[in-house]
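Dear Dr. H.,

I hope your travels went smoothly. While you were away I took the liberty of generating a structure for the chain from your last submission, since the lab meeting agenda had it listed for discussion. I wanted you to have the full record in hand beforehand rather than looking at slides cold. The sequence, exactly as received, is reproduced here:
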Amino acid sequence: MENQTLNEDILLLEGLNISPQSTIPAFIILLLIYVFALVSNISLVTLIFTSRSLHQPMYLLFCNMSINDIFGASIVTPHVLRDIFIPHSERYIRYIHCAVQAFCVHFYWATTHTVLIIMAFDRYMAICNPLRYASIMTYRMVVKLSVSAWAVSLLIASTLVGLSIRLSRCRRVVPNPFCDNASLFNLSCENVTVNNIVGISYTVLLLGISVGSVSITYLNIAAVCVRSKNKSLNSKALQTCSTHLAVYVFLFVSAAIIIALHRFPRTADYRKVVSVLCEATLLAFNAVIYGLQIKEIKQRIITLFRNSKGAGKK
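The corresponding predicted structure, in token form, is as follows:
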């Protein structure tokens, strides 16, 4: 009985299908991306919190993105790195760990969208209502928006995973390199119509609100820039909005590719690779885009680099 319970509690991850010759290069590439994403995001959060000049709503909201990326970097990548050197037949994971990982994955992706929505609102207020910006985007408002973004994501992830863990299980194989909500409810032989409907509804609702709010925001910003002859305003709008839009487009395209590949079973191996690469690359991409494109942060990084270089020479 104990052995049967243990077997039911342990799942098998299919993981990435990598040839022995590609194992070490794949490990090194993924490890470098992971370390870079972790170090760059931690550095940016530290830089923003320790620099008084960066204690502005835009940068404090960006901290939400970096903190979420640090969290996201630790969900999947270390597990995938470990499994690269483990034979396919021995890539085990306990069901409870799989459920926690699925919750964290959906919490991370939902938070990414909700944070980008509140960042779009911040840019709208700064460019379209500059005279009211300081009175509306106060420290208290930044905290409220941040808490709301994380709370909504917590609700989404809890609902999705909660509906899946209530089901009985008749399968043990997870056809992915990491666990997600679909992996959980597909382990069951029960009717999972409710899970599919709720999952699709949440996805459509979140993406709809996300795409709609970002689109409306940038259409309004574009209209203001066209009507305005203020070169300084247009330059600032282009600089700050291009970073936000680049991150959003990268996120949307990545999600669209993964969803599209799910529709073609023959591309399962490609889907696994793409899902892991998108997960890892997005974390590094966010830090690079914001760190190099936002003038204030770039200047602080250059100043710190020069100071450390000068101290090294002494």
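Two observations you may find useful: The chain has a mean pLDDT of 80. The two ends are 69 Å apart (CA to CA).

With kind regards,
E. W.
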